[in-house]
Amino acid sequence: MANGTVQQWIYSFATLSIIFRTEGLFVNITYVLSGVAKGAVCLDGSPPAYHHDKGFGTGVNSWLIQMEGGGWCNNISTCLSRKNTRLGSSKQMVENLAFSGILSNLPQFNPDFYNWNRVKVGYCDGSSFTGDVQAVNPITNLHFRGARVFLAVMEDLLAKGMKNAENAILSGCSAGGLTSILHCDSFKALLPMGAKVKCFSDAGYFIDVKDISGAPHIEEYFRDVVSLHGSAKNLPPVCTSRLKPDLCFFPQNVAQHVRTPLFLVNAAYDSWQIKNILAPGVADPYGFWLNCKLDILKCSSRQLEIMHGYRLLFLRALNALGPSSSRGYFINSCFAHCQTEVQETWYRADSPKLANKTIAKALGDWFYDKNPFQKIDCPYPCDKTCHNRVFDPNVHTFDIDI
């Protein structure tokens, strides 16, 4: 074997070893077969599923439930398009899922939650686990049962030890982050009276604003989601008693009424929201925003000005919640979306920081009541700790565009 080849092999092995140490925990899938009889099924009628790595040591009675993200489906066509993917069928979910970031089992990568029971719940209903329609169209065979899926998974986890929880967090990113807000109080109600229960939303604070053309695109989209999935009866009554149900899909109309302590982490220039709420394709038919949406460095001065305006609207929607000593937030000015499941943005030497704290440290201190954390970043591009997303135009990300 030539010397250069040996060196290349050693380098490759070292690289793989580093990747394995950070991403090397693979967790087997669990199917909730008992849910099927209760009608708790994915879009295609398959059983709910999750991946669970058991807690150990001092974390054996602590539970972190991470709800998967992946957008929503708002009509028959978009639901059919995801029906035969992992976002609509547990048959398409991976058998072994890599856990990292907030789900890591290593203290150097996840200092506060590494030895907890860590659960990733598969998202296969398209409604942030709020839907419940009994009828099933025999032609499409679509099942809108997200709320039943949520309950069936939680009941399965309770039977497997969560009923003895001393600490518990309901968390999630993107559509899963919205889930953690909408289901926060109902999750707490399932846990023992004496348990320390809090909720954490990563990139789930979607705001109700008009797009660049002046149209209420996201409001109309959420209206279709709520109507199709029959979500109204599963949205917080304290909101639906005052507002139209589709408006209760927006965290700004719900979060102030959540009684359980809630932590919000969000980029003020959230890349998904910029792409889909501020400048969706329907509002930009000539593609003037395409390059900007792929890479913030390619935004024109006028586009950045509009995005700064979006940030102010985001902060207004956040401030409208009013003061709360139990609520935490980490709002950085990055062009990013979902910062907790990836090691580089969750907890690493070069991870994003506010007040010199990583997201992991801020959340851990908040959960254990060591320090409150309510920090908002200065406007882009002042934060040099950001890991701004750069999208490949040929690769579709996991979180569905709308």
TrEMBL record:
Presence of keyword GTP-binding: no
Domain of life: Eukaryota
Pfam families: PAE (PF03283)
Subcellular location: Secreted, Cell wall
Keywords: Cell wall, Cell wall biogenesis/degradation, Hydrolase, Secreted
Keyword flag Membrane: no
Signal peptide boundaries: none
EC number: 3.1.1.-
Top enzyme category: hydrolase
Function: Hydrolyzes acetyl esters in homogalacturonan regions of pectin. In type I primary cell wall, galacturonic acid residues of pectin can be acetylated at the O-2 and O-3 positions. Decreasing the degree of acetylation of pectin gels in vitro alters their physical properties.
Family that this chain belongs to: Belongs to the pectinacetylesterase family.
Protein name, UniProt field: Pectin acetylesterase
Lineage: Eukaryota, Viridiplantae, Streptophyta, Embryophyta, Tracheophyta
